[in-house]
Specification:
This protein has 250 residues and is an alpha+beta fold. It has 2 domains: 86 residues, 2-Layer Sandwich (Phosphorylase Kinase, domain 1), CATH 3.30.200; 146 residues, Transferase(Phosphotransferase) domain 1 (Transferase(Phosphotransferase), domain 1, Orthogonal Bundle), CATH 1.10.510.10. It contains 9 helices and 10 strands. The chain is globular and about 55 Å long. The relative contact order is 0.11. InterPro entries: Kinase-like_dom_sf (IPR011009), Prot_kinase_dom (IPR000719), Ser/Thr_kinase_AS (IPR008271).
C-alpha cells in the first residue's frame, strides 16, 4: 500500500492506529490542532451515512464527557468526507492538548530506579478521579487506555480519545471492563505497577459506588491479574469494602 503523504501544515504524526492516522497540524495564524484521518471504504461510507462512523461516535462521546465535567479536546470541525488525489477520507479536527500521556508518565516513573513513588501515586489518584467521574455519571468508555489520558502542565487530566463512550448498560460489568482496559498497555509491555499505585487509582475510581456495587466490582477484579494482592485483603460481611480493600495512600 502506498504511504500517504502528510496533510497540509503537518508538524508531526502523533499516532498511527491503522487505518486511522492522527496528525498534529498548525494552519497559518492558528493554534496547533489535531487532525484525525480515516480512509473511506464502502463500509465506512455506509456507517457515516447512518451516523455511526468512528469519528461521529467520537464527537458524541466528547459531548457526553464534557457534560459530565471531564476535560476533553474541543471539536473544531467535522467529521466530514474529503475527496482528493490521496483518496477519499473522513476528517475530524480537534484542539491540541499539550502535555504528557498517562502511559509516558508510567514508563518514566516505573523505569527510573530513583523516581519518587509518591509522584506515580499522585498520577494514579488523578486518573482514578476521572474514572470515578465516568462512573458517577453512568458513562462507559470501551477503550479507556492509559495512553488516552493526557496530563497538562497544570496537572489537569484530559481524555483525548472519545470514541466508544456511551451510557452504561451493566454497571458492575462495565466498570470492571474499564478498569481492566487501563492495564492493557502495562501488561503487554511487561511493566509492573506497584501495589500501592494500583490501589490509589482504585480507591478514587470506586468512591462513587455504594457498598453493594463496590463489593461486586472488587469480587470481579479478584480474578484479574491486574490487581494481584486482593486475595491478601479478604472481604468480610458487614464491612465497607471501599474503605477496607483500598487503604489510604501515605
Amino acid at each position: 500500500m502506498k504511504a500517504r503523504r502528510p496533510p497540509e501544515f503537518a508538524l508531526r504524526q502523533l499516532k498511527n492506529d491503522a487505518p486511522r492516522i492522527v496528525w498534529l497540524i498548525r494552519p497559518p495564524g492558528e493554534s496547533p490542532q489535531v487532525l484525525k484521518i480515516l480512509p473511506l471504504s464502502p463500509r465506512r461510507f455506509l456507517t457515516y451515512l447512518l451516523g455511526i462512523s468512528a469519528p461521529q461516535r467520537a464527537v458524541r462521546g466528547s459531548g457526553l464527557l464534557r457534560r459530565a465535567g471531564v476535560a476533553v479536546p474541543e471539536v473544531l470541525s467535522g467529521p466530514e468526507i474529503v475527496f482528493g488525489r490521496e483518496g477519499s477520507r473522513i476528517e475530524l479536527r480537534v484542539s491540541y492538548v499539550p502535555g504528557v500521556s498517562g502511559w509516558e508518565v508510567l514508563q518514566r516513573v516505573v523505569q527510573d530506579p530513583f523516581a519518587d513513588p509518591r509522584k506515580l501515586r499522585a498520577v494514579a489518584r488523578s486518573l482514578g478521579r476521572v474514572v470515578g467521574c465516568l462512573i458517577r455519571n453512568a458513562l462507559f468508555h470501551r477503550d479507556l487506555k492509559i495512553e488516552n489520558f493526557v496530563i497538562d502542565a497544570a496537572g489537569q487530566v484530559w481524555i483525548v480519545d472519545t470514541d466508544g463512550v456511551r451510557p452504561m448498560r451493566n454497571r458492575v460489568r462495565e466498570i470492571e471492563r474499564m478498569l481492566g482496559r487501563l492495564a492493557v498497555q502495562s501488561q503487554e509491555a511487561g511493566i509492573h505497577i506497584p501495589f500501592g499505585v494500583r490501589f490509589s487509582l482504585l480507591r478514587e475510581a470506586l468512591r462513587p459506588l455504594g457498598r453493594e456495587d463496590r463489593s461486586a466490582v472488587i469480587a470481579r477484579l479478584r480474578d484479574q491479574f491486574w490487581v494481584p494482592g486482593l486475595h491478601r485483603l479478604p472481604m468480610h460481611p458487614g464491612r465497607d469494602p471501599g474503605r477496607r480493600i483500598v487503604p489510604k495512600t501515605p
